[in-house]
Every structure is written in structure tokens, then in C-alpha cells.
Amino acid sequence: MQSTKTREGTEGGAGRASRAVIEARDLTKVYGRGENTVEALAGVSLAVEAGEWVSLIGPSGSGKSTLMNLLGLLDRPTGGSYNLGGREVSGLRGGELSRARRDLVGFVFQSYNLLPGETALANVELPMVYADVGRKERRRRATEALERVGLSGRLKHKPTELSGGQMQRVAIARALVNGPSLLLADEPTGNLDSKTSEEIMSLFGELHDSGVTIMVVTHEAEVAERGDRTIEIRDGRIFGDEGRSPGRDVENGGRR
């Protein structure tokens, strides 16, 4: 069932500006040159407030993956502006872009992307290694993150000793351990059976209830319905935005 939660202070001008996690305006992305140019995104604007759960849907070739890559700082836009967690990030390059991605975005992928030879604890510690967090603090925070996702008894287990659902929980713990502004999940239940998918989506629900800002990219209607909003992308543009309140309007970001 689609969430109908309304969080205090998410509407209104000043409050909206102070609580916005994502503010994207007129994002474009063009690949190729000359006659081989492909416009993957054609001026996308949207805002996501702190604590929202947004589902991003769209057919293959719609620009959904391109938008996800831009919002997750895996790629840079050709044009437009992007403010993430109160920071303008659309013009960042090199090390600055890598640090912003590490500090502001937590990723959960369909394929888990865990290091097979490392324990669950070591996998969750990895983002903090790149952030130069001390060993003792890494261990403490990784342990707390795994406890948060219900894996306190699996700290020393390697991925081959875990079920698909448990591996995805490790991936979620790793995504959360640096306290990101945005949790971005790409088809997080794509490799899971229906029972395990329900468990993972229930975990996302708990994270959402605790105030985590979530964007889930999915083609599954049941997964999309879990969010506060469902944004549909077609032909590089926002085709629909279901579940928005009037306070969430962004220029050119609504239904066409």
C-alpha cells in the first residue's frame, strides 16, 4: 500500500528550501557529437525533501538510468544545476566529485557488489576506509549499521555464507554507514524471491520511518507503490509525478 505519511515542515517556501535533499533544475545529458548526438535527458527538474521515499520508473531507454547516474553523482550533466544535501554538485570534477559521492550518496545495487573474500563487517567498513576513518571507529559504526539491518549475528560471515536477502542487507548497511543525504537503490529486489523481496522492502520502510531519504529505481509496480511518490520518466522527460503535495512543485518538474 502506498505510504500517505506527511512529515512536519516539508511544505512551504522557506521550510522546503531548508529540507530539500535534491533540487535539480533543467538537467540535460547529451551523448555523442554531431549527427550521432543522443539526448538522454531533455531538461528534467525535480525536488525531493528530507525523509521522502521516491520511486523512479520508466521503460528501457527512457532516461531513467541516466537520471539515476546523475543524481547519484556517477556521471555529470551536460547542462542544468543539481543541489544535493544543500551543496551544488553539478560542476564538481575528479576528487571533489568522488568525495561528494562518497559522503552524500549511499548506493544499493541489484547485484549487491560485495567483496566475496571479505566478511560482512569488512564490506561495510569499506566506504569508511576511503574516508580515512580510524579502525576502531570503523568497526563501531559498521557493527551498528549491521545491527540496524538485523545482521548482528552475521558480522564474520562472508557473502558465500549468506542468503541473497542477507547480502542485500549487508549492501544496505554499507550504503548507510557514512550517513548519506540520499539512499539510492537500483532494482534492489531484482535478484530476490518474493518473500525475501518483501523482507527487504519492509526494511526500506523502517529506514523511511526513521527519516532516511530514499530513491528506488524499479520496474516492479509493487515496489514502486511503497513510496510516497512515483516519478515516471519517458523520452528523457518527467511524464508523471504521483503523490506530490503542492509544496513540492519545481518548475517543469510536474505532470506535462
Automatic annotation (TrEMBL):
Keywords, comma-separated and alphabetical: ATP-binding, Nucleotide-binding, Transport
Segments of this protein annotated with the region Disordered: 237-256
Gene Ontology terms: cellular component: membrane protein complex; plasma membrane
ABC transporter domain span: 22-252
A molecular-function term among this protein's GO annotations: ATP binding
Name of this protein: ATP-binding cassette domain-containing protein
Record organism: Rubrobacter marinus
Organism lineage string: Bacteria, Bacillati, Actinomycetota, Rubrobacteria, Rubrobacterales
